[in-house]
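Quick illustration, no need to memorize.
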Amino acid sequence: MHQTIIILDFGSQVTQLIARRIRELNVYCEIHPWNKAPEITEYVKGVILSGSPFSVKEENAPKPNVREYTSVRPLLGICYGAQLLAESLGGEVMRSTHREYGRAHLSKVEGSNALMRNISEGSQVWMSHGDTIKSAGPNARVICSTGDIEYAGYQLGEEKIYGVQFHPEVYHSIDGKQLLSNFVLDICGCEGDWTPNQFVEETVEDLRNQLGNDKVILGLSGGVDSSVAAMLLHKAIGSNLHCIFVDNGLLRKNEFNDVLHSYRDMGLQVKGVDASSRFYKALEGLSDPEAKRKAIGKTFIDVFDEESKQIENAQWLGQGTIYPDVIESVSASGGPSQTIKSHHNVGGLPDYMKLKVVEPLRLLFKDEVRRVGRSMGIKESILERHPFPGPGLGIRILGDITLEKVRILQEVDAIWIDALKSNNLYTEVWQAGAILLPVKSVGVMGDERTYENTVALRAVNSTDGMTADWSRLPHEFLAKVSNDIINKVKGVNRVVYDISSKPPATIEWE
């Protein structure tokens, strides 16, 4: 067991950022819904109360008994958490005459205070609240303010109980990481010993104890998560790990052979299965994006099931589930969010397969997965791969799927991705891809009139895919890529660049 910080989630969209900032300090932390709080053991060194879309003045707002935490651990309330803490300690929270949202600057910073150490006067912070703290209780004192708010930060007497009205976890709060470091390392006394190397050692030992001589099946995708999960399992059980890499015919150009080769270089036992014809048949005549996703998912399950039956006495299914997936499965929102689009992965396997699940990455965020991968010597070409949708090019071809459309998009995508890499822009972009549109337009090539396809190029910057902004790539670079695509890919005479952000758009078009 490691020293742990517990984060109670009240439904804020940025709660995961609190955990990621703390993990960057090499301190282990966990997010729990406010109404499913864990037992506070000797390993818990501090508790953080997150923000929330609720107002503490609302009747149905989440209001746990925070006093049970104030007596045993250092406590930090952030935004809603600070308001809830203040109200619970005898303070007063009121509706603001105007909602404060966006940048603000700290004033009256008590530099000698443990929470505010090394945070300068005028430091930029990010506000997002409709209520304001008028008083934090009889023993509270202000440790920082802003031009509009007196209680931007407070401490309860000399106790290790703090509240801040701003969000230190977001990038816009310039000294936010310093504040969290002050709380976690100095006030809570965490040692910062949760490192990638230690994670690998402990996880491999745990896997050996859990799995023994049992066989494990794992579906590889070529992506970061499944690759790192495979290496952890390989270190633990060696040849008892059986990997399956399915070619659905919707991968990038030459990807099946390239990725299969790289996996074998890593020492993994991998069976490549070319099932492309089965996927094309299942997709025949389908244009609706959800119908295509479901057809791809079902076919994948069928293929994977058939292949797994050839591995005698397999008892476990390995998955690349990461911590955000775990968090979302126990969301504090009180119900499922609206389905924007369905996803498919090995986690959709039916009950009749009767395999137990092992998830070696379930404690890690994506950036931590990469750090763990590097500590095991996995190639950067795998670790820095952009996210790629499970249904692959099947949802980057708008409308029905044909072999000719797949050929066109694979050629376009290859030129686009290769150009990003050769111009040292690939790692500057979080995700990039090409989309074949169901649009034909008139063009001129030489003296001939053409009537051919349009492709859209997409490149976005993001940290976790929840929000994203379109990448500002050099115009000269885009012009060169457009020219190469039109000249080299038969069937394309027009290229457009997608400058939509998420929200309101999504990263993928389907």
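The first strand starts at residue 4 and ends at 9.
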